[in-house]
Design a protein that fits this description.
The structure holds 2 protein chains of 2 kinds. By secondary structure, chain A is mainly alpha-helical. Chain A contains 8 helices and no strands. Chain B has 3 domains: 62 residues, no CATH class; 57 residues, no CATH class; 76 residues, no CATH class. Chains A and B meet through helix 1, helix 2, helix 3, helix 4 and helix 5 of A and helix 1, helix 2, helix 3, helix 4 and helix 5 of B.
């Protein structure tokens, strides 16, 4: 019963949403939109709160044990401060909540993102060795893109950006299309397996 | 210089210290970022999802049907305790089931049929050979053959599959190049902020 009831609910919701997709009747459209927009968003919101509570619990346990205490306290202060700022001063532009977002979160997030440029470059230095035909093609395509997207590309030969664009929209696009077709067929079969109850990994390992 | 720029500049430098190696300054900045980001997303989710879609319509406008997603959402809290963790299987079942129901027609349309129809176009148009269309057709077929693992890739089949790997490498190479350039442009943006607004070395 512990597995069968969730499985039945899963199949029922899947079937209803699937059938509603093919109907233009107002009730069917309303059910489809209600489930896919409202239900999803509300359940995801609760899931996020569960995740945040779990984060706080894990960090509190870590503080109790004395593991990375200062870092954990800094994280918890952030988690608690943001809702407090929103509660006291609101979310409008210029509020302390938005100040923290604009001057703490955004600069740090974009710097972490920018840091990846160095790691990608060092990884490519180690990984990009033209040992085989495939590796040589990979290296060539990457270099072409890098040169074409910088000022040097235009300076070397005016048609380099044009050639890079053709590579991007033709041979690269063909491989992308094949991958998308594969993803589409894979998702389709997995969805059918979920609906008819063959795929049960989402239920977890417990009986 | 305003306090916001000073704080943003110091935190940007703190993150950049990771380029030297993992260090306490970076770890502290990272911990602050994680905490603030979780706090931010919690507030935004509460305001835009729970208040706007659930609590205001349910308790303000009396839309009783919202009790169902409310109950499903509350069941997610069961996950926090061992005894009630099985309750969370029901809302997960709703998400997985409805997601699968949406995915069947959507994936078939957007990922498979649309891609196939874009591929199957005339190779000879207006009496002349369209090289680009021919390359796309050969590329898609050979890459699909490479991903077909139910037949041993030997002989002409294997050679076609190998051709598919060349197309895949071109795709990975171009994607890599694009990713590097986007990261570089973000890095230049951060450097511009540091040198112009924070350190004021460049005017």
């Amino acid at each position: 019963m512990r597995r069968r009831i969730p499985q039945l609910i899963c199949g029922l919701f899947g079937l209803v949403v699937f059938l509603c997709y093919f109907s233009s009747h107002p009730t069917a459209r309303s059910i489809y939109l209600t489930v896919t927009l409202d239900y999803w968003q509300i359940i995801f919101a609760f899931t996020l709160i569960v995740g945040a509570i779990s984060f706080v619990r894990v960090n509190l346990r870590g503080i109790e044990r004395g593991e990375d205490r200062s870092y954990r306290i800094a994280s918890l202060v952030g988690v608690i401060t943001m809702p407090l700022l929103a509660l006291i001063w609101g979310l409008k532009g210029g509020s302390p909540f938005m100040w923290v977002f604009e001057n703490i979160q955004v600069p740090m997030q974009s710097t972490v993102f920018a840091l990846l440029a160095f790691f990608v470059a060092s990884a490519s230095y180690r990984g990009f060795r033209a040992r085989s035909m495939q590796a040589a093609i990979l290296l060539g395509a990457a270099l072409l893109m890098l040169i074409a997207r910088s000022t040097i590309g235009d300076m070397l030969w005016a048609r380099i950006p044009e050639a890079a664009e053709w590579v991007r929209t033709t041979p690269a696009m063909s491989a992308r299309r094949a991958i998308l077709i594969g993803i589409g067929l894979g998702s389709l079969t997995t969805s059918v397996r979920v609906l008819i109850g063959i795929e049960r990994t989402w239920l977890g390992g417990e009986k | 210089m305003d306090i916001g720029t000073i704080v943003a500049g110091i935190l940007t430098l703190a993150i950049l210290t990771f380029l030297y190696r993992d260090n306490p300054i970076y770890k502290m900045a990272e911990s602050i970022l994680i905490g603030v980001a979780i706090g931010y997303i919690l507030v935004i989710t509460w305001t835009n999802s729970l208040m706007a879609l659930l609590f205001k319509p349910l308790f303000g406008a009396g839309e009783g049907w919202l009790l169902v997603p409310l109950l499903l959402g509350l069941m997610m809290f069961g996950r926090l305790f061992k005894k009630t963790s099985l309750l969370s299987r029901i809302p997960i079942g709703v998400l997985i089931g409805s997601g699968a129901g949406v995915a069947i027609p959507a994936m078939l349309e957007a990922r498979t049929l649309r891609q196939l129809s874009a591929t199957v176009s005339p190779v000879i148009a207006d009496g002349s050979l369209d090289i680009s269309m021919l390359v796309i057709l050969v590329g898609v077929l050979s890459t699909l053959i490479y991903f077909y693992f139910s037949r041993e890739q030997v002989g002409w089949w294997g050679k076609t599959a190998k051709l598919g790997t060349y197309f895949l490498m071109i795709f990975f190479g171009t994607t890599f190049g694009y990713t590097v350039m986007s990261r570089m442009s973000t890095f230049i943006g951060r450097m511009e902020f540091l040198l112009t607004d924070f350190l004021r070395i460049i005017n």
